[in-house]
Design brief:
single chain; 3 helices; five-stranded antiparallel β-sheet; alpha+beta; three-stranded antiparallel β-sheet
């Protein structure tokens, strides 16, 4: 159908993030990651090795008209991602903090579109 956007599956290391189902899996086993951290992870996976700025994340995830404690929400989301990936801010294998700018996904990522007919 011409109006449908194909959903994507991102793979990195032993992990797989399925945009369509909103699931993160490790070696096929589903991991618990809530919606907001999952959406942050997807933003990083869409642009591996590139800096995704905090402002871009704010605009896309919370919108320009939403007034929330964005910094706390984003920091919490990134910490949840690191926790589920067993990653570290000091020695990142997946999510690197770029001080004063944003975050960068540093592992190799492959992407496959799914759901296309």
């Amino acid at each position: 159908m011409s109006g449908e956007t194909p959903r994507r599956v991102f793979r990195f290391g032993v992990f797989e993030a399925n945009e369509g189902t909103g699931e993160l899996r490790k070696s096929g086993i589903r991991l618990k990651l809530h919606s907001q951290p999952f959406r942050v992870l997807l933003m990083l996976l869409e642009r591996p090795a590139e800096i995704v700025t905090r402002q871009e994340m704010r605009d896309r995830l919370w919108g320009k008209e939403t007034f929330v404690d964005f910094d706390h929400g984003l920091n919490t989301a990134v910490n949840k991602i690191r926790e589920v990936l067993a990653d570290s801010a000091s020695t990142p294998r997946y999510v690197e903090t770029v001080p004063g700018k944003g975050y960068r996904f540093v592992a190799a990522v492959t992407m496959q579109a799914v759901g296309e007919n």
